[in-house]
Amino acid sequence: MGGTLLLLRLQQILDSQFPIGAFAHSWGLEAYAQGGNLSQRALYDLLYASLTQGSVGLEGAACALAHSRAGRPKELLELAHQLAAWTPIAGPRETSLRLGGRLLRILSRLYGLAWPSSVPPHQSLVTGWALARLGLPLSLALPLYLQSSLMALLAAAIRSMALSPEAAQEILTQLQPHIATKAMAILKDPDGHFHTATPGWDFWAAVQPHLETRLFLS
């Protein structure tokens, strides 16, 4: 595959605006904003924690592991069970399956890809599997995948709190060196980064469905 086509497909699949419905989810950030009176600095700290110790890093590792095991359905199924165990709150776990299912339907329509039917279609696993099936290198894709995940959270933050699009880009720029570092670390040892430890995120993700008024499903 030519380099230009490779880059175009990477940008297409990993675009945070890819039409899988991510705009309807905040992964608990809306509840965090309502309950925590978030400042721009506090939001940066939350996103940094999600990248380095939380769900963004976890899903990056899951994407990398799925990429390496794309042709082995039994191992993909084991990954799916492990990912579900690392995602204890129902909202984010169900969101992962909904978004992954939609991603899978679009990729099947565009590229004729056939996901193993026995494996729950978590978004990160479908992404890594599809990248491998399309011959797209993980070394280029993983940093973009991590950044796309953070961009989705920033888009939710713009709608949930007093944050301008320009300020969101400032936060993203500050996070980019850490994105690069995390991507390199995952590429070297994906199993070693397949974990999460952000109880604050878990708490507010559990609160999210019980908000009196809300913009997001999760």
Automatic annotation (TrEMBL):
Keywords: Chaperone, Cytoplasm, Nickel insertion. It holds the Pfam family UreF. It comes from the Bacteria. The keyword Cytoplasm applies. It is found in: Cytoplasm. InterPro entries: UreF, UreF_sf. The keyword Chaperone applies. Required for maturation of urease via the functional incorporation of the urease nickel metallocenter. UreD, UreF and UreG form a complex that acts as a GTP-hydrolysis-dependent molecular chaperone, activating the urease apoprotein by helping to assemble the nickel containing metallocenter of UreC. The UreE protein probably delivers the nickel. HAMAP family: UreF. Belongs to the UreF family. This is Urease accessory protein UreF. The gene is ureF.
